Amino acid sequence: MSETKPTCKEVMLHICDNLGEELNSAKCISIRAHMENCNSCNRYFNSVETTIEFYKKYNVELPEKAHNRLIDMLGLKD
Amino acid sequence: MEEEKLIELAQGGDRKALGELVKRYEQTVYNFSFKICRNKEKAENTMQETFLSMVKSLSQFSGQSKLSTWLYRVVSNHCLMLARSQSKYDYASFEDDNVSIDEKEIADWKVSPDIITENNELKDALDSAIKKLPAEYRVVFLLRDVEELSTEETAKIVDLSVAATKSRLHRARSFLRNELNKVFVHE
Predict the structure, then answer these.
(1) I want to staple B79 with a disulfide (CB 3.0 to 4.6 A). Which of A35, B36, B138, B179 is the partner?
(2) Does the distance separating the beta carbons of A54 and B180 come in below 8 Å?
(3) A67 touching B (Cβ < 8 Å)
(4) Domain extents for chain A?
(5) pTM of the entire predicted model
């Protein structure tokens, strides 16, 4: 799914894929119809996406000292 | 230089090529280790164990999977082993399907994921929520959703069927979402 604004098709593919459903399956079509009019589902889906984005953006840099210790330990110092 | 060539040279004993491979992946391995362990000391230890394992086993690496996938597998296995040895930790139980959705609790969060970079309180909340997830669920969530591996690749790394991987992913996502919901809605 694209990182900025996903299209409706991408959203549905994402949901249906996780349900093990094809995009044109009866279940997926009924989910799509429901999603179009359900604020709760849209809010829930957005909050799950936000949860994932939080964990994606929470990164740590490898400290230089840890890099040096790794290189030393592996005997790869120039 | 292309990765395949570097691996070939490293397999032939070229230390410079091996060093280059380590440099290419050390940040990814450290970051992923931290995301599972949520502890910088443990992340460094896991990173060291992972590259030691890579150095020892590189001659057997056939190139059928990507080196990154292979490294993710080593990190995941190491962390799962650590977690099993520390099984006293108070993980959430999914036996009673406690990840169900309460429709009254579906509020609009009105937050942007970009606030994470400078918000230590939020980082603590994220750490606290994911630490409650059993390691088997945490690894699936991180590989599939955070590192963006395919469901099939994730399933192979954790030795599960695709269906079982999807089930764990769904439960992990719902659990984390519900934990953070408490932070955003009830604070």
Answers:
(1) B36
(2) yes
(3) yes
(4) 8-73
(5) 0.85
- State the Rg of chain B over Cα: 18
* ipTM attached to this prediction: 0.86
| Residue B123, both tokens | 């980082």
Contact A57 B169 (CB under 8 A): no
DSSP-assigned letters across all residues of A16-77: HHHTT--TTSHHHHHHHHHHHH-HHHHHHHHHHHHHHHHHHH---PPPHHHHHHHHHHTT--
CA angle B90, B91, B96 (to 5 degrees): 120
The yes or no reply on domain B103-186 and CATH 1.10.287.3610 is no
Residue found by looking up tokens 């593919």 in the block? A13
Domain layout of chain B by residue ranges? 3-85, 103-186
Per-residue pLDDT reduced to its tens digit, B117-139: 678 888 999 999 999 999 999 99
CATH entry 1.10.1740.10 includes domain B3-85: yes
- From the list A20, A48, A63, which residue is nearest B173 (CB)? A48
